[in-house]
Design a protein that fits this description.
single chain, 270 residues, alpha/beta, Rossmann fold, eight-stranded mixed β-sheet, 6 helices
Length: 270
């Protein structure tokens, strides 16, 4: 059983999201280095605290010259904010790419931050049928959403669930879709070499499969894709075998880069 003092630390979605980005079992970029930036107390956090955490990550990336190797994932959101807009713009101008969740309010993504920032790579949630998840907690939509990825019933690490350290759980939301794309960024940089934020954002959008998502409601109709053709998978030793398709599979074995993660649900305040 899980010790009492670890219950509040581990029994959260944060490890689940990190596991999608770069976990050794369920991660898109299994050899990336994960950097966790704690900005939430359980499910909520003040906008000022979250933005400070984001700015810390940006400073850490730029001070160590990691602009072309690191990516920030933000599985969080709150009301639309010019403060957030300015923070994302400043990061972009310093060469830092942020991948963000579209939000789960079944509304326009332009109503929430950081999704509405034009510099962010904003990700919506699709189900197994490549349709926008529109049930309770439905994915946000509209032209602020740049790309779609799997985010429904996603299995990943969830330490502390059922009192076990090595437990897993299936969760649904744009918080699960966003780390698929953040992991994809890290994977592509490991595969193809260092790339600027602008070049990598353009690469992810160019690789995406068009006209696949239904009920996108004005969002870009692009499904995240790793570029590995169906019926092919690149193994850790560089050989090609097996079968794969989509964002998540076919990424095993490449040495990843650094992935910074700010995870939570609701940002309070402007």
């Amino acid at each position: 059983m899980l010790p009492d003092h670890l219950q509040s630390v581990l029994l959260t979605p944060f490890s689940h999201v990190a596991g999608i980005v770069g976990g050794t079992t369920y991660g898109v970029a299994k050899k990336t280095t994960l950097v966790s930036v704690k900005v939430f107390d359980q499910d909520t956090g003040l906008a000022s605290t979250v933005i400070a955490g984001f700015q810390w990550a940006v400073k850490d990336i730029t001070s160590k010259g990691r602009q072309n190797t690191a990516v920030i994932n933000m599985s969080l959101g709150g009301r639309a904010s010019t403060t957030w807009d300015a923070a994302l713009t400043a990061a972009w101008e310093q060469g830092v790419l942020a991948v963000v969740a579209a939000g789960n309010e079944n509304q326009l993504g332009s109503n929430v931050s950081p999704c509405r920032s034009v510099e962010a790579l904003c990700v919506g949630n699709t189900d197994k049928n490549d349709a926008r998840f529109s049930a309770g907690g439905g994915s946000n939509y509209g032209d602020a959403v740049d790309i779609w990825a799997a985010g429904t019933n996603i299995l990943s690490a969830y330490p502390g669930w059922a009192g076990e350290l090595d437990s897993t759980r299936s969760l649904t939301g744009t918080s699960q879709a966003s780390p698929h794309v953040a992991g994809l960024v890290s994977y592509l940089r490991a595969l193809e070499g260092m790339a600027s934020a602008a070049d990598m954002k353009a690469k992810v959008l160019a690789l995406a499969t068009p006209d696949l998502v239904t009920d996108g409601m004005g969002a870009a109709n692009l499904m995240a894709f790793n570029g590995v053709p169906q019926q092919m998978i690149i193994a850790p030793n560089g050989t090609i075998n097996g079968t794969t398709n989509g964002t998540r599979n076919g990424t095993t074995g490449f040495v990843g880069r650094r992935s910074y993660g700010l995870y939570g649900r609701r940002v309070i305040g402007a």
